[in-house]
Amino acid sequence: MTTRVERRRLLEEAGFNVFLLHSEDVLLDFLTDSGTSAMSAAQWAGMQRGDESYAGSPSYYRFESAVQEIFGFEHVIPTHQGRAAERILFTTTCRPDDVVPSNTHFDTTRANVEAVGARAVDLPCPEGLKPAESHPFKGNMDVDRLEALFRDEGSDRIPLVMLTVTNNSGGGQPVSMENVRAVAEVCRRHGTPLFIDACRFAENAYFIRLREPGYENTSVRVIAREMFDLADGCTMSAKKDGLANIGGFLALRDPELARSQRNLLILTEGFPTYGGLAGRDLEAIAIGLEEVLQEDYLDYRLASVRYLGERIAAGGVPIMQPPGGHAVYIDAAALLPHVPPVEFPGQTVVAELYLEGGIRGVEVGSVMFGRHNAETGEEEPARMELVRLALPRRVYTQSHVDYAVESILAFAGRRENVGGFRFSEQQPVLRHFTARFAPLYDLG
Ligand code: F0G
Prior knowledge:
Structural class: alpha/beta
Bound molecules: ligand F0G
CATH architecture of the largest domain: 3-Layer(aba) Sandwich
Strand content: 5-15%
Number of strands: 16
Number of domains: 2
Number of helices: 16
CATH superfamily of the largest domain: Type I PLP-dependent aspartate aminotransferase-like (Major domain)
Strand order of the largest sheet: 2-8-7-6-5
Shape: globular
């Protein structure tokens, strides 16, 4: 617990960037659902038998067969987290000026595409850009625009297509099986591989079961496998639906590509049977991947997120509808219409929720996805101004969520009195992690 006076001081010391707070000064940490899961007794038990052999560890083979069985890809390359898998994937597939489309690239995915000189293009479906409108699969890719991109760029400029399930940057919204199938069909016609960013694959599969006609009686495991059977590979952050605190992998069918990726893996991550992870981590992931498919768990998971979303929406806070799988996204542009995008309304909401209740969320708007034009000195805003409240898996109880609801509604009640922020310091890439801000109003 901290007092408001303490939080005011701590926030200022952190340059009004909640990434720079000490987590001990945060009461409810909704910054991310990544690496913050509580591990189960079975996972902790698995860690005890972690085998730390440099090469050929039995822990690796248990991990490999869990991934092969659930995802169906033959080649399994462990990495220390998702972005390492992304870096290896794009380094081995993209050339400068190539184009990599996605429903919406996550920030590290976009940065890794751009780091190899290629262009990351987001093709969300139109419903995905209208926060207030409810639609069962707002994470879908716009297939017509994908076709148009192939026409305009030519398939030799598009080395692969990515599909993020669920669509994190687009509000944690699911992608339908119908959409995966349609995207896969376009890729097949152009001879282009499809890779799934599988971070939240189990949550996506459960949404398909709940919302897509024809899947009511299909198990989440079978749905997940059907999704991956349509793709050529995936990148995975086991810090999400692997229920682990660290880890990830790259998995694929193409043996040639896998060979060059393993070589790159050795250069920066480690030998192919541990890839930057301890044997015990591989055990925790193998068990987590099984546990995340338990439907009672998924039922509770989605219900918790829905509960938070529905309660604050009922209190008049505009959110991305319907609530996503891992997070509720507040529509900061609609909540604070008097704060223009270039003054970062999402940043205000994040700062104010910390001041109000010691709650830490994350801005997913013009701070994260806008651009600073170094020539004109102007800010180019993002498409949406969202604030994500991500729920760690198996961590918080309903009374924690009730406390969050009270704090969010208390802030919403005094929203007319807040203003915006400006950058006082920023880096050219992934600026939201380290930037410092100055408020353009009196925070009290
Ligand atoms: N793809 C998606 C959709 C993600 O959400 C993340 C991470 C990554 C890739 C990268 O994985 O962190 O293991 O390197 N998302 C976290 C988040 C950080 O807070 O949403 P990583």
